[in-house]
Design a protein that fits this description.
InterPro entries: MFS_dom, MFS_sugar_transport-like, MFS_trans_sf, Sugar_transporter_CS. It is a multi-pass membrane protein. It is found in: Membrane. This is MFS transporter. The protein has 19 helices and no strands. With 461 residues, it is mainly α. The longest helix is centred in the first third of the chain and has 35 residues. It is globular, with a radius of gyration of 22 Å.
């Protein structure tokens, strides 16, 4: 009797799928730890190195600037050279750079080191998410990609928790605080070593026999390889680092989705990272006394919010999740800019509400770019959207402490609310619904121009 074949999108969940999800989570966990640990270390660094507000802002934003470079360069490189070939390299950089913090003696060297780490962080987003999305079946894609954001916030929260055990009397301890990121990075580096290349990418570049072997070995004989061949288009020849895929992305009609992903991501992350990086400073300016404990409590709710988004993403869909969470986050920031925040209990409650809502919507940051772009330019689209978002996040992280120092916390939060409102407007006008669509190669948006407004929110990927 002939065994029934099923597409990669409809395969039942297997041990290999769970392994891919676990290993992919390592990168975001380390990302969150690396980005969060600077919050603990920055007050100590400022005191030890006698930093100005501008220098503190630059060091806080350095990794975000590096992520811009990492995404915009390594996204196309991932589409050019493959996912697996660089899957291990960026975590090796995490380990080495974390250890290198022990030898930093000045602000310039620290900025450069954080910049290099940011480049490695930026590379991980298109590499890890593209590889995970291309192996996972459709019903797991939304929850698992959302769980990567959850792991980011788990790493971020754990890094903040280390601040409870840091001796603040010795300002030089910041070097050991930052070097601690080498531990989780080394663990996940070892776990990544044996993950194979994406068969979807191999088919897109014509390496059919390799793709077939990986599908049969890791996904089983029931996986319909012929279906994969039929529904994966071949990529255009690329040379050099593969940066021509950026031009190709726009030339094939995906500019609208690049704009949407970039704007909604930027408008989520710019207020979020700026507020989280300087959460203790904000709480202190609003009259909260136990600022580190308050910061830890508030940030821990990001785990709650992301878990909530992960649970409902397949039930209510991508578009409703983005719009509802964006509305609540925006209103929370506007409320924080009013006299209500003068009472510590209201300030903390509003920050918690913002954190939960923003984190629930942030689950879509890994989902949308991997579902609206086809295989041969998926990492390019993901990397480009992430890079643009980091420019906004870096600007917000740099500007917020200066704004607080000159005009007060209320005005800084009002600006953050305006940015969130812009993202909400763009999401309402442009957000597609991709919940029930297979991860096949999409047609450019122009091919769907004649669809009804409701149907036009359904994009094939």
């Amino acid at each position: 009797m002939t065994e029934r074949r099923v597409s990669l999108d409809e395969l039942p969940t297997g041990r290999f799928h769970r392994r891919v999800a676990l290993v992919a989570a390592g990168g975001p966990f380390c990302d969150g730890y690396l980005l969060g640990i600077i919050v603990v270390a920055l007050p100590l660094i400022a005191r030890d190195l006698h930093l100005s507000a501008a220098q503190a802002g630059l060091i806080g934003a350095a990794s975000l600037l590096g992520m811009f470079v990492g995404g915009i360069v390594f996204g196309p490189m991932t589409d050019r050279f493959g996912r697996q070939s660089m899957y291990v390299l960026n975590l090796a950089v995490f380990v080495l750079c974390s250890i290198a913090h022990l030898f930093v003696t000045g602000a310039t060297a620290l900025f450069a080191l954080r910049l290099v780490m940011g480049i490695a962080l930026g590379a991980d987003y298109p590499i890890a998410t593209a590889l995970a999305s291309e192996f996972l079946p459709r019903r797991l894609r939304g929850p698992v990609l959302s769980s990567l954001v959850l792991c980011l916030w788990v790493g971020y929260t754990l890094s903040l928790a280390t601040g409870l055990f840091v001796h603040t009397g010795d300002s030089s301890t910041w070097r050991y605080v930052l070097a601690s990121a080498a531990i989780p990075s080394a663990i996940f580096l070892l776990l990544r070593l044996n993950i194979p290349e994406s068969p979807r990418w191999l088919v897109s570049v014509g390496r059919i026999d390799e793709a077939r072997r990986i599908v049969e070995t890791h996904l089983g004989r029931q996986a319909d390889f012929d279906h994969l061949l039929t529904h994966t288009s071949r990529s255009a020849p690329r040379t050099g680092l593969g940066l021509s895929s950026i031009r190709e992305l726009f030339g094939r009609g995906y500019g609208r989705m690049v704009f949407f992903c970039s704007v909604f991501w930027t408008c989520q992350i710019a207020p979020s990272f700026a507020i989280k990086t300087f959460q203790p400073l904000l709480l202190k300016s609003l009259g909260v006394t136990h600022v580190l404990s308050g910061t830890l409590v508030i940030i821990s709710f990001a785990i709650v919010g992301t878990a909530l988004g992960m649970l409902v993403i397949n039930r209510i869909g991508r578009r409703p999740l983005l719009i509802v969470s964006g509305t609540i986050a925006t209103l929370s920031l506007f409320a924080l800019a009013t006299p209500l925040s003068a009472l510590a209990v209201f300030a903390i409650a509003l920050f918690i509400l913002f954190t939960i809502a923003e984190a629930a919507g942030s689950a879509l940051q890994f989902v949308y770019p991997n579902e609206v772009f086809p295989t041969d330019v998926r990492a390019t689209g993901m990397g480009l959207a992430m890079s643009v978002s980091r420019i906004g996040a870096a600007a917000g992280t740099f500007v917020l402490p200066i704004t607080i120092a000159k005009w007060g916390a209320a005005n800084g939060l009002l600006i953050a609310a305006g940015i969130a409102a812009l993202g909400l407007l763009v999401s309402y006008r442009m957000a597609p619904e991709t919940r029930n669509l297979p991860l096949a190669d999409s047609e450019p948006p122009q091919a769907r121009e004649k669809l009804s407004p409701v149907s036009n929110n359904e994009v094939r990927t």
